[in-house]
Every structure is written in C-alpha cells, then in structure tokens.
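help with this.
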Amino acid sequence: MNDQPFQTPIEYLKGVGTARADVLKKELAIKTLEDLLEHFPFRHIDRTRYYKIKDIQQDLPYVQVIARLIHKDLLGEKHTKRLVAQVQDETGVMELVWFQGIKWVEKNLTVGKAYILFGKPGSFNGKAQMSHPEFDLYSAEAMQRKGNITLQPVYSSTEKLKQFSLDSKGLQKLIVTLLEQHAKDIRENLPLYIINRFKLINRSDAYKNIHFPEDATKLAEARHRIKFEELFFLQLKLLKNKLLRVQKFKGNIFDKVGPYFNEFYHNKLPFELTNSQKRVLKEIRQDTQRGVQMNRLLQGDVGSGKTVVALMSMLIAIDNGFQTCIMAPTEILATQHYQTIKNLVGDDFIEVALLTGSTKPKERKLIHQKLENGELKILIGTHALIEDKVQYQNLGMVVIDEQHRFGVEQRAKLWRKNVIPPHILVMTATPIPRTLAMTLYGDLDISVIDELPAGRKPIKTIHFYENSRLRVFGFMKEEIAKGRQVYVVYPLIQESEKLDLKNLMDGFGVISREFPLPQYKLSVVYGKIKAADKEFEMQRFVKGETQIMVATTVIEVGVNVPNASVMIIENAERFGLSQLHQLRGRVGRGAEQSYCILMSKDKLSPEGRIRLNTMVKTNNGFEIAETDLQLRGPGNIEGTQQSGLLDLKVADLATDQALLMQCRKCVEEIFAADPQLALPEHQILNRAFMAKDAGLSWDKIS
C-alpha cells in the first residue's frame, strides 16, 4: 500500500478521534489508515437469502426474515426486564426478545410495520425465537441497501473495543468511511502484463471486494489477488536480497580437491556415502567453484549424515588453503560435533579445536594464536566463535548448525571475519516443508538429505494408552536384558514447571520400584539440576553404567548414544509434532532395531490424535513437518517467530503452496530478464518495493 493518504494516523479518520484511536492501537495494532484497510474480515455472512418463518431451523448459524411486527411488550422487574415482541409472515409467527438496549429498541419498533430481521435462530417453548436480532424498517430503499452488501463482513474485535462501539459492525462503519474517502487513492503495484498473465483483478477492486464483495465470485477474486500480492512481494524481497549478495560479495574459489579430502574419502570414511550425501556434496562443490559466496541450507533428519557432508566440505576448503569453523547454538551440541569429527578424522590427520564459554583461558589463548597464524584448520564452538577477539588468518567456510537460533546479525559478524566473506553452509535437523523453507530461507539455496545411511533400520513407533503401562515395563525389561538402554522422557512446559517436575519425580518413583537396584541402574536429568550433575548423569548413561535415563526434554538435542534403542515419551499428547520427531531421533543411532513408544492419556483432542497417528504412520521428517504446518500454521514452526517474514494476512503457506511456487517462478523470471528492475514496466515494482520495508538488505551487513 504505502500510498501517501494511507500513512495518515487513524485518529484523523471521520468517526475515530483520540480515544477510539488509542484503543484501536492497543487492541489491534491499527495505527494508520493502511492498517485499518488491511484489517480484513475473517468471514462473510450471506445477506442475499431470506427465510420464511416455517423454514427456520435451530441449527442454522443465522437467518434473515421479512416479517410484520404484531405485538410488543415490556416484561419483568428492574433487573429481569426484557422486551418481547411477535412478528408474523404468511407462514407463521416468531418471537423476538431483547435484554439490553431495551429503551432504544422499543422506541424504534412500531407495531403494524414490516421489518428486515437478522440473527441467530433459537426456540422457546417449541416456538421459533430470535434474541437481539438486527432490524431495519422494510422499504425498497432498505432492500436495495441490503442488496448492495450481499455478503456482510465479520471483523475480529475485542471486549475492550466493544466498549467503544467498535464491534464488528462498528469496525465495518469505519471501513465504509475509509473506502468512500480513499478507494480512489489505492494505486496499482503490479505491472499490467503480470495482472493480465495471472488474470488478477485490479488492486482497488480487490480491496473493495475483500471487505464488501458484490458476490461470492468477486470475494474469491479479491482474496486471490491479495494473496498473490503478499506472496509475490515476499519472494521479490528475498530474491532481490539474494541477487544483491551475489553481485556484492565475491566468493573464494575452491578450484581443487586435494590430499585432505582424498585421504579422508578413500581411507578414513568408515561407511559408504548415500546418494543423497553425494548429491549435496556435488552441489556444494559447484557453489564453491563459481566465484560467488555460497549460502546454502542443508536440511536432513536427525541421523541422516549432515555432519559428514559438512566435514567433507570443510576439507575441500582446507585443501584450498582456508580455515573452517562450525558454530552450534549450545555447548552440548558443539561438544557433540567436536567428538563426532574427532572420531571421524582420528588424532594424527588434522587438528580440531573446541571453543565454548567453558574453555579454560590458557587453552583459549593457544586457540587464538593457532587461528591467527593459520595453524588451526577446524574450529568448533558456540557463539564464542564470533567474538571480536577471535581472529582467523583466512576463514573460508563456516558451517552453522540449527540456523534458526542465530539472528542475521550473528551471521553477519562471521562474514566480516575475512576480506572475502566465507562460504556459509547452514544445517538444520528440523525438517521444514519446502514452501516454508523457500520463505524462511528464501535467500539461501536449499539442499536436502532425504535418505538414511545404509544399515539403519527405521524406528518402530507405537502408541499406548495408560492402561498398557505394565506391557511397556515388560518390554523395557526385555530390551535391557538384550543389553540395550532406554530413555523415558517427560514434557517440560514453562507454565506448569512444578506439575512437570512432580510428574517426572512420580514417574521416577514408579520406575525405581519396577526396576530396583542392584539389577537396574537409573539416571535422572532435568532442567533445575546443576550443569556438572547433569553432565555426570549424562556421561554415566553414555558409558552404559545406567540402563534407564529418566529426563525432561533437555536430551532433545546433543546426546548420541548408539546403544539406546528405546525412547518412551510420557504425556506424548503434550508435545508438538516436530518435538516428538526430534526426540524419536535420539534412538536408532546403532544397527539394532529401535522403538519409540508414545504414552498418552485416554482422552485426546482431535489434534492430539492426528499428531500421534502421524508419528506412528511415518518416519519421514518432511511429511511430519507438512502435517505440523497444517495443524499449527507457519507462525508456530520453530524459528519462524523471529523471522519477521511471515506477516501474511490472507495468504496461508499451508494451503497456498501452488500459488507461492507460481509467484517464486514469476519473480525468478523477472530478475533473470531485468536484475536491476530498470525496464519501464518494472518501475512500478521498484516503487512498491522501496515503499514496502525492504527489510534487512545485504549492504547493511557488509
């Protein structure tokens, strides 16, 4: 929008004023005329249909009737006063009742006159009744006015707004005023050839019809136009940023594959790479040869072998004379990457160092020296890696794990660690549906590892209700007898921390009685215990000294125990789908068959049932993410809250995937033909793009 009149503060619209403006700002964040115009109705009510009284059924959401008032009466005492009236058409009689605003209603209802009545039907003593209906005196003019608003908009409001007469009807009045004054100021923001190609209605008509549609077809056209616009400009912003980066930042060229890579691949790699891993390596290899800075997102389920791909990409950088680093969001995850990579490369092959908040000053000093003189080639750590005092001699590749936990600012700091920004590989084990990835990470190229390494058996997932508890205990004993280990995980939800801790402790008590010492040994880990104690308990489990680990979700990331083959998730209905999937990925690390058991109470919400059924049905993280997106909407998928990208008012990433792909393709074609948006027909896009907040552009990062 951002056309001049629409930036006018809301208090200047006729009928608003300061008091109403304040409450609109607080309750709905409506500060300008543009905000009000974009406060779209969440549904429309069909005002074209009129019912006869005999055809009214109670289960209808609302009805509209034309009937004549035959009687009205004030009944009851002071506090129980009500106005009761009867209306009649040629098919029967209906009762109307009002408990509030009685004075005004009685003054405006005249016996003998006909009215257009609208409201929710009910019944009283077996007769049709309507409480607090809207009413208009029947006349040709009223019928015409009603005919003009065939589909009446319904707007979200709040109790506070209703005190200022800003219920749905009050908001509707303001929007009518706004459109009467300013519909002519709504300017087009798409080139004519795009409007024609995608058969879009013009912008002004779209805004008028999304609020007050002439008919259902016009409403559908208006919604389609506004969805297209939202998704189109989102992709324009992302791809323009990507283009700016490609133009602005040259990348180091890794033109050779040398001894480090070859030695590792041929002599040290303990298993055959999957086709997926080979494909991703090839994509990274091509990126690093083009002379353009790489920014690639690597998606893959827990255990799909992302770390090996990252390591081999780093070895290519090292073969070309560069240093590399891996940045993880937590110490436990950084430590795990460090151990995994140390195990893969061995002691005498290449030096690998770990830098976290708990690294001793003496060690830290040595790491700093080795980084500056170029001796240290692989550094793994937390955000300690981006502190100003950490200086690299020649940083060529950065791997960022679980990107959504790092802001753009933190990434930017890493870019400044070298004259030519390093290549960036972002890894995530949170599978993100393709459409959401294209939106969240639309400025990155995307690679997916979608197969598990050979020899890995899919995890079997079973859902049990509370009454099967003894069966589950029996199964745990069988697995422990085979020498396996078991996780038992309880939810940890901030609001009910005390309750969660009680559940964990009660559960721990039951398990201790069922699995007594000395035959069985248990570890217990939860958020409130000291870090050193937590580490001690984790290590006991990792070394196999305890067979059962009872924990809250602190184990969600970071613990890799190949011998643990059973994951029991208590109160599984209280976990989100992606969390359940992440937890399940903690087992299945070895060659043995692994199991995930979901325990739940008997009564489940429909959503809870879908979540647990989805887990039983599939191990595919991407299918799970698609279901999660449909159940929860994009705003709740991990990492999207702070992205600021998903400010979509009409478009929905779960249901508008085909339209998103269409918009993306269209924007790609535009940039391929006119990267600067310099052609006359693209000036309109340039203007709209500049007017919309273009967000964080890459030149601010350099």
